[in-house]
Structures are given as structure tokens and as C-alpha cells.
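Notebook entry, cofactor series.
This is the third protein in the set we're modelling with a bound small molecule. For this one the ligand is zinc ion. I'm keeping the input format identical across the series so the outputs can be compared line by line later. Sequence and SMILES below, as received.
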Amino acid sequence: MTQRPDNTKEVLPGPVLLLGAPGVGKGTQAKRLMDEFGIPQISTGDLLREHRKNHTPLGLMADDLMSRGQLVPDDLVNQMVQTRLQQPDTQRGYILDGFPRTLNQAEWLDAQLAEAPLPVVAVNIVVPEQVLLERITGRFSCPVCGTIYHQVSHPPRQPGICDRDGAALIQRSDDTVEVFHERMKSFRAKTAAVIEYYKAHGSRFAQVDGDAAVDQVTNAIRAALQRLRQDAAPPQPSSAGATRLKAVPNV
Ligand SMILES: [Zn+2]
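Returned structure with ligand:
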């Protein structure tokens, strides 16, 4: 098991939706929160892959639709999420990745969690667009060993050449300016409704500055969670608030 620092007793993270444009460091931050709080990340992409790989009834339905060139509908994804949320490792919380993506999914999730001790809170990691653009378009990788370089933050000793094996570095085809702007546009279109939803339904939304050192960003997210959980967790009439904040079950 991962060793958890003492301060995990101060915040029971509960369900957390981490939002952020491509390149803000969402993956890195999610990994850190998972380690710190001992909670899983739930990604709909991963769920879909697992169900298909294990040939579950839901996976077979997805296979069937995809083989006919159709999209996997919300309803099927929702069922996969529902099954996943019944696993015991989600008790203290979890990080949602790529879900909810739409207003309907956000409403569905809230209905699912109506009896849960804590509602979903959303944390948006924000980095100025120009900074993101530089982060992404300055990235090069080695086709042989997979090492990733960055022309500003982690340049190779010789420009364009891998330090480890001398291979010529390449740029991923989607690390270009055009692809970046497309992805930003799609990100804004998709997340705007979700952000509005969590802003509108209680204080369940926070924004943190992602243009800082990785540790600082983690600290800001932790502080935001603490604040949101103090503001947002409505006293549960049934449990008289007994499961709020510090009452971490013995796991
Ligand atoms: Zn290499």
C-alpha cells in the first residue's frame, strides 16, 4: 500500500472532478492526489477498454456498436461508471477523468450520488493559453526509447538528438499549433456546461492556477478541496453530518 501522509486525515476528498485544458498537467496532478489520498482515478476511457477486454455484457454491447461504426451512447458509459462506483476502493473518494462531460451526465451523476455522504466537486486547473501552446509545441520525443524532451524546460544536449541513444527526435503530429487550437476549442465547448453546472448547484467549483511548480499546483488543489468540502458538504439529515470531513472510516 501507498504510505499516506498524516494530513490526509484533514480532508476526505470524496468524488472529485479534475478539469483542465490539454497540457495543464491534469494527469500529473491526478496521480499525485491518488497517491496522497489513496483514492482511485476513474476514467471512462479506461472503463470502456477494460469492459471490452474482459468481454463483459456492457463491453460486448460496446463492441457491437463500435463494429458498426456507432458511438458508445451516454447510457452505456453511465452504466459502466455506476458499476465502478460500487467498488469498495471508492469509499473515501475518487478522481473522475473525462466524466461527466455533459450536463446530462452531471445530472445523472448527482442523482446516483444522492445518498452518498459527499457530492461531486469540480476543480479546474487553469493555465494561460500562450503558456500551454509553448508547453505543447515545444515537445519532442525519441521514437526509439520514448524519452520526452522540451526545447525550453528539458532540452536534449544536442538539438534534435536523443541523449540516450542518438536517435533523431520527432514531434507528435498532434503537438502542432493547429491541433492545439482545435483541442482548446473543443475543450471549451465541452467543459463550459459542466463548469456552469457545478457553479450553479452550490459552491462546488474551484479554479486553481496551473502555471506554477508542480508542488505548488498540488498544494493549491488540496487547499481548494479543503475549502470546497467545508463549504459544500450539506449536512446529511439521515447521518447528522457524522461522515463529514474528519470522520474518516478505518480502512
Ligand atoms: Zn532515445
